[in-house]
Amino acid sequence: MMKNIFTFYFLALFPCGLFAGDVTKGDASKNNKAALEDTKEQLTDFVVGNYQLIGKSFESDITYAGRAELSLTAQGLLIKRTINGKVVEGRGAIETIMADNIPILRLHFKSAATELEETCLVDSDLDNYARLTCHLYKPGIETEHPGMEAYFIDRAD
Questions:
Q1: Contact present, 153 and 131 (Cβ < 8 Å)
Q2: Model confidence, pTM
Q3: Which residues does residue 148 pair with via DSSP β-bridges, in sequence order?
Q4: CA distances, 27 to each of 19, 24, 34, 114 (Å)
Q5: Distance (Å, rounded) from C-alpha 75 to C-alpha 115?
Q6: CA-CA distance, 105 to 55, in Å (whole number)?
Q7: CA triple 118-109-125, angle to 5 deg
Q8: Domains of the chain in sequence order
């Protein structure tokens, strides 16, 4: 009986194109690029806000806590981090990585004259606010001990 139900659904739905996908490569490519740009725009809007952050320095076991603000301006996504009273500003953007075009947030800033970069996974908490988990490192330099940060939306604002 189960085999007959599967055969019915497969034969009934396949000709409708539900399993076949778009066979015109050019149109599919255009649609994918448009969808990808739409996703980047939505994620950029999603991550804007004030955060509490906790972290661990790269190449060290030193931990810290602080605050961060992600804001969208005409120049793009800006980050302002405050840790131990020191303010560091930088820029960010939603990018895609890997063959699957996985969206990530990439942040660039300078701390104590050192260029730093952060690659963050964007997720949501149980209240649908952005939650960011990041690896912190010096761009172009391999490390066995990257820094780590987690950003939690600050709902007190």
A1: yes
A2: 0.77
A3: 56, 135
A4: 17, 6, 11, 44
A5: 20
A6: 17
A7: 45
A8: 49-153 (2.40.128.120)
85-142 pLDDT tens trace: 999 999 999 999 998 889 999 999 988 788 999 999 999 999 999 999 999 999 999 9
- CB-CB contact of 77 with 70 (8 Å): yes
Token pair of 140, please?
Answer: 């172009």
- Look up residue 56 and give its two tokens: 């661990």
Tokens 């066995």, residue located:
144
Cα distances from 70 to residues 48, 67, 82, 100, 115, in angstroms, run 5, 10, 12, 26, 19
Query: Alpha carbon 152 to chain centroid distance?
Result: 14
Which among 105, 101, 104 has a CA at the least distance from the CA of 90? 105
